[in-house]
Amino acid sequence: MDSAYRGRVGETLFAESLEDRRKAEAESHLIRDSSGVDEETGQCRGVYPLCGRGDVNTYSLFAELNHNLINQHGRVGCILPTGIATDDTNKLFFKELVEDRLLVSFFAFENEEKLFPRSDQQGDVRTAVFWSSGRRGEKGKARVPNAASGAN
Description:
Elements: H1 3-33, E1 36-37, E2 44-45, H2 58-69, E3 75-81, H3 83-86, H4 91-99, E4 103-109, E5 127-133
Antiparallel strand pairs: 1-2, 3-5, 4-5
């Protein structure tokens, strides 16, 4: 492979990388600027008012959209990274689920047995399964298992 060819390949890869980065930043900008909570009024706006802020993750948007689509008698379950409950950018979303008693159950575990073989599990990444109800203030409490005891 001659150096001129390597140079053209490198320039092409660099240009494609810049374009991909520009697209990702534009999508994040659109989501963040069309969503969120108005600081002055406290009103929610946009499609993703709770997760469309900060460092936007697609799994967070997926969870919030699913939650917003269910009616008061419905439920939704998602298989997501545990960051849905632990990441700073998701704290408003998870806080709403817990405070409004919409969280039915939440299970976090390492996918060592490859129950979900297509999930990208590398290093210390854990998987979470959560169920959300559309009925606010439903009697009962969320079942958040204690990892140490293994209880449900």
